Amino acid sequence: MGSMLGDWPSFDPHNFSQLRPSDPSSPSRMTPATYHPTHSRTLPPPDQVITTEARNILLRHIYKRAEEQLRPKRAATEHLIPEHGCKQPRASPY
Amino acid sequence: MSKLDRIRTWLKDSGQTGPTNPSKTEANCAWYRMRANFSLLNLHLRTETCVHCARRFYENLVPSYTIYDVECPDHSFRKFTEDGLYLISFSRNHQDLVVYRPTWLSFSCKEENCDAHDLPPKAKRFETLSSAHMQYLVTNSVITWFQHLLSSSCKDFFLYLESNQYGIFATSTTPIHDASATGGGIQGVPYIEKITFHLLRLEDGSVLDEKVFHNDFVNLTHNMGVFLYDDLLAIVSLRNQMIHILQIRDSGNLVVVRAIGAFCQEDDELFLNSNAQASGKWLGGENYDSSLKFLKRSHLKGACVTIYVLFELCEKIKQRVQCLKKNFYFHFQDYVDLIIWKVQFLDRHHLLIKFGSVDGGMSRNADQHRAFFAVYNMETTEIVAFYQNSAEELYLLFEKFCDHFHATSRHSLSMNFISSHSNNIHSLEQLRCFKNKASSSSQFVKKMLGLLPFSCQSQSPSPYFDQTLFRFDEKLISATDRHRQSTDHPIKFIMRRQPCSLKFKIKPGPEAGNMDGRTKKISSFLFHPFLPFALSIQQTLFLQPSVVNIHFRR
What we know:
Chain B: One of its GO terms (molecular function) is ubiquitin-like ligase-substrate adaptor activity. Chain B: InterPro entries: 6-hairpin_glycosidase_sf, De-etiolated_protein_1_Det1. Helix content of chain A is 31%, strand content 0%. Chain A has 94 residues and is an all-alpha fold. With 554 residues, chain B is of the alpha+beta class. Chain B has helices at residues 3-13, 26-44, 49-55, 268-274, 277-284, 288-298, 300-316, 321-336, 358-362, 392-400, 402-406, 425-437, 441-449; strands at 65-67, 75-80, 87-91, 96-102, 130-137, 140-143, 148-153, 159-161, 166-172, 192-201, 206-216, 226-229, 232-237, 242-248, 254-260, 339-345, 350-356, 371-377, 382-388, 470-471, 484-485, 491-495, 502-506, 521-527, 533-540, 547-552. In chain B, strand 2 and strand 3 (87-91) form a beta hairpin. The longest helix of chain B has 19 residues, at 26-44. Chain B is globular. At the A-B interface, helix 1 of A face loops of B.
């Protein structure tokens, strides 16, 4: 029969009887359009290597949040220490 | 123009016609889908899209036929392996591990009207659907001077390493409850004299290696105390508060990589013993930075306690310092009393550890108790983040990146396509619906974070649980392998796409339904990872034999 599906078994032998393989002589209308760049401004640097980051996105977020939490805290403590540095610690009444 | 019409037009243009009957019969839909899929597959062969494209076939290939009450041996069926090669079960007396290799029904009919014929009676026998691959006896009776130790297998625990076809199961002696805190153990945690983890090659049934724990307790129900990621195994010893990291080598050896608990690095014990005076400096609080470094190296719990408390400290330092000191000392003992409950891998170097109080660890209603999560880097021994179980921040990460919490191995193709609310719009809508219905936001967050850390290999990769393809009642059946309350009504699987028709039903229990509606019945379901084949097992709480049904595509 020369159908695309070959000699696969089928319940009804008349199925796929009208199937014709695509004609190689007629030009295919499915050629996609091609685009060519007109400048080279957006070319990547020649030594660029693209790899997958080892750490997954969840861990990257966790690390980023941890760094954000520590950074402003350090700035705050540096600001406060000169103020308290001149004071003496009070003797605990307990 | 519908998708089907567009495909028909495309086919006509390219000079091919489909089957003569243009009505939307199942065969036609399958043909058009196949044709469309071939072209899509050509475009997407190297991406994961091809898995989603191929999955749409499962809308047409469904386990629509059921054989009720199959005669099968009285085993407790545990799971299908993730590659679909084996069916793992344990014998009722917990002494044998039985592995089946599923084969397909072979039945041919030479007559004209084959569809009307019923299957022959021998189809009802389990043996025709699988060959008993092997039977491994785990009886291990050791008579010592004082006791007669009899190990039995833990029927809830089995892990599978897909790359080498290795399986891990455990045998243990009877747990002793109400054990006192002897030998450094935690009060309130049961005590098992001997637990053995066996590494088994499923191809030939040979036991390659084993790891024994003495006087310990590992929670093995539903794989809770053990997590497998690639070739790394994390075992949580609840009694001794240690996390043992083992590596499964290709040669079949179980190698201890590290033991986290009292010490973080391998040489910490040596360091501590040779620097005994460093602990005196820490108590005095003189050199804060070096003592902090010491804490981080030496004691995992002490490290996370101190860092969390530090964060709290910095927040309140703008307010009253005195009040702050009181809070610190008031809560300090609560943090020191925390124990490790559960652990999972986030990647090869990071662990997500759940801390909680001793009471909460062994109770069922863990939501009521306060719990904390720590993200721990095993290489640098740093606590990267520390959250309470009501933290909105952690919940947002859980909502966005749930798949990364599931931590499936990259090598396992099927396990990376399980529907979750991070990769599926329907699951996300369901979650949002629960969120809106919840009475209080913090209770909802606690409930959702109570699912963390996840247990590994607890979800079925079957495409019939893909929320994009089918809609089903999650209370009655889902990808998670938990026992559920059984109903007499069949569970419907409805197509998500138009025309949203009923595709197939899964009915556990006998065909005619149960005689007595009063006894409580529970069902469990085992779906093959990629074939249209499923087992439903219904059991009553008394030791009656279970009713096993087989659902498959005829």
